[in-house]
Amino acid sequence: MRKLFLAIVCLMLAAVASAQELKPLKIKSASTSSQNSTNEGAAKAIDGNYSTFWHSVWSGGTTSFPVTFTITMAEEQMVDVVRYVPRQDQSNGNWGKVEVSYRNTETGNKYVSLGTFDLGQSSSAYEFEIGQVCKYVRFSIKDGRGGWATASEIEAFSIDYAKRDVFKPYFQDELFTELKPEVTSSEGIEDPDLKALVDNLLNTEDYDKFRIAEYEPYRPVGSLQNELKTSAPYNQWENPTGVYVKNGEKLIVAVNAPEGERLGIKVRNWVDSEAGSTYSLRSGLNVITASTEGNVFLDYYTDNYKTAPNVKVHFINATVRGYWDQQTMTNADFKKMLGKLKSDNSIFIVRSEHAQLAYPVSAWKQYCPENVDSLMTLYQQVQWAERDIMGLDKYGRQTKNRQLYFASTYGFMAATGVGAYCNVNSLQALMTPDSKKFDFWGVGHEWGHNNQITPGFHWSGCGETTNNIYASWAQLHFTGNRHSLRLEDEVTGVNDYSGMRGGRMQTYFEEGLRKGVQWQLQDGPDYHGANPDTKTVKGYDYNGNFTGNVTTTSRNYDHFVKLVPFWQLNLWGTLAGKCPDIIPMVIEGIRTTQNYGDTYNTNGKQQMNWMKLACDSSKLNLLPFFEKAGMLKPIKAYIEDYGAGWNMINQTMINTLKKHVETKGYPAFTEEINYINAHNFDIYRDNKKLSVPSTLGTGCTYSNGKVKVQHSQVKNAVAYETYNKNGELIRITMYGLGSDDKHSFTQVLYPTSSEESEAAAYIMAVGYDGTREKIYEMQNQTKTLSAIYCTINSSGKGNALSCGSNTTIDTKGKITWALDRASLSNSLNFVWYLEKRNGKTYLYNPQSNSYFTGTANAESSSLTTKASAPAWEVACVDEQKGTYTFNMNGSGQYLNSYSSTKTGLWGGGASDANNIWVVNEVTGFDITMPKTGYYMVNFPLAVELPNGLDAFAVSKVEKLNYQGADYVYAILERIDSRIIPANFPMILSATPAKYHLNIVVNDSTNIEATNILKGTNLKLTGITKGTGLFTPSATTDAGCTAMVVANATSTSIIQNRSYMLTSDINDETQIYFATEDFMTGVNDIEESKEDGVLYELNGVRADKLQSGRIYVTSSGKTILVK
Predict the structure, then answer these.
(1) This prediction's pTM
(2) For a 10 Å CB count at each end of the chain, is N or C smaller?
């Protein structure tokens, strides 16, 4: 993550030179030859507000140097010092060379030059020695950072010389560290500062610790940045003093400045307040009133850093908290200092040879209270990795300047223009002195931003890519978890390797190496499937000439996938020893190219030059490697980044590079560089030959579209290639994909498909030298699920997929979904149909007449219509266990059992147990006939009735007289067909028992029968109490054995029921069941004493006869038994 660091630094500056204080003088007005607007006009540099600034022209024009800036004093008077305070929120416009001159009454209209000074475009305040009676002071600015000139404030001062004479009589030296022999007491001294100093020197043990010390010169960060070509300067707060000052507190500093060198102090805290302040120092006594609180640093940056002497400084009577330096101090020293400090957000400084940390005391006490030495070793290791990649030792560019990491109250982690930071609440991973827990990647990533080579190796689209070369190098060398590397081991991926270990690097193998997509446009887990934005931008030709505004598409791509080619080149060259320091050599080539930015003025030119330098440095033809990686291919794309821009390479540029390499006669490499990673580099290093078993398939096991290849059997393979039966390459699998911590196997991609071109036929193992051997071949390796009814039960969390017992439908047809998972039962809620349409599979739920769908990466699922239903790729995981995965639309989003009852979609394929489902075919189901012998039912699928179970429709409801009384009868019409089509409401009749109904697939039965029954598969709601008839009960009335009565309390009807509503049957609430034959003769039937076999009206043989009941004889005659 990279973030522009904006911190309005309060620079209420005060200093004293061989005296007491600078006394501010009033400036009447200011004028300039160039200003952008009145909001950024000259007056903003004399308004006393350090958050405003003057800025030369930038909007709608350019700054022409020299730029003059003139101040007019309120009156002509002695001006000792004029201070220039740079804009502090960023470095644009910082002054470089500037000529200073003055004018007064004596000189008339002529300005007298005081000389030209080089400020080095530094962010530090600069005090110009004027020492003249002035009315006007003019600055002629020759150059400024970024091509502009800015100033936060211009201030004028006179100097008051008073304090010096008070101190001098008591001391033998200019730094006031040695009392004269006759000074044995502070008695009689009136000046409180002097009195306190005398007492301290006489009586305070260890007074000189931190208060009196020597400090070394450092190279100016601007010139160092220009040499190293880094994107940001190094630490601007070197030389911590161990002194701490509060806002408004007086700080007395004695120093003997080396001749010609500028010294100062800086005050900074970072967490409690981002405000910081800077003060100049001169030889002698300096009295400063601090305008901000924080740690004090000696500002000693000089172009003479190689020869300038150390400087001794005395912070008189200062408050000391200390700092810790790994090169001179111990853990015991750290613990002692930390123990004296209050646990708060004030900063305690810690540093190693090349790293400096500014973290709060509270964080030190919480995360690293003792073993700071081990922690700083980890930071120093990151610095080694960064500087090794940059080639600082190799090319004699090593510097003692450090890089800074500080704490903040905003963001998470980011790089800034002054270093890198981490939020104070996220410091644990950066302060734990354990290589297994320390965040090497995070620290290396952010410092890597500061170290990105600019221009030359910081192209548009690579803002989060080329910095990770440093992070990956640090992580590889020093992490205590070598099995958790960012590229090789991160669990991610897309498509058929989604959710697999190493899935991100695998994306490069598929998108770049196999599919041949241009580098920077290769898909990846980050931004996967992102829709490009259409925008109008400035257009350029391949030479960087503006061609007018153009409309184009733009999007971001996975930054880590882009990293892989550089990572592989570094592994192969340096770690495997094939071309040591290949990356540092390229970087040095960029540094030493004169006028690099002018010559290579486009991203495309810089990318081509990078590949040229790689070939020239290695003296090898590496172009085939770059071509396979997608880097040496024509491209014209506008790519999003921190600074979006064009990546443009044409064939002419490619041909020119190829001709250059051909002319040089560089030999071509013969190794498979594009297949190297951090877990197989030793095969390249040691030239290990590929060795495979003599029997095809040994060490290989198929499961769920992948073949697990054991490295103990297939030895020294660096990658695996999967082919279809026509010999076409359809997958490339990186070494260790989906493996364990020991990297003992690779899960080789082995897709199945109804399309011949996408169906795997065999696997070739690849050696580092290009050798290829067939290791696996198998036909018909998976069971194909046909169109079946089935249950789908979670293998990971248990419970089966269901449309939900609480899913309802109201009388207007509105469905309320309650999709869930529950313990598998006989309910038809659990039955799904694998519907086949156009070669695709859909999850159809007959009970709700709808299809399963879900939301990507969410615990969210629902049912939808046929038109909106997604297709599912169903892949066998284990045929014997009947386990499968369901991949929605082939998107890498799998049916996932989030919890025991909730279902959604997630990545990961079969590597996630919650994506695995047990599919059991359902061929039928059981029903239990109630004691009444009647069951009102409605099924969402066709069924075949067993013997002994009869089905009836209700042809009509009729009021008839029976034995002198009127009754309302439901006339039951027997259904002759043993196959009942789906959604046919009926009344089943049989002797009370359990019956098994077979499901009929692809049924076309049509029953022609009058039927006034209605049916519902879902729970039907919205029924008025006392109007629904759906549960038969036993009776002896009206010559019948069963009846149905309107439910007096229910407002719903149970699922899978046939039913009648009172509104459909003349508001009748009590209905008796009778066959049509019986009802034909009910009104004129005679009493009978007939003997013989009799049958109930439902056809069941009557074992015991009851008087007053109607039976049927064997001849079909209806009789009433007396």
Answers:
(1) 0.68
(2) C
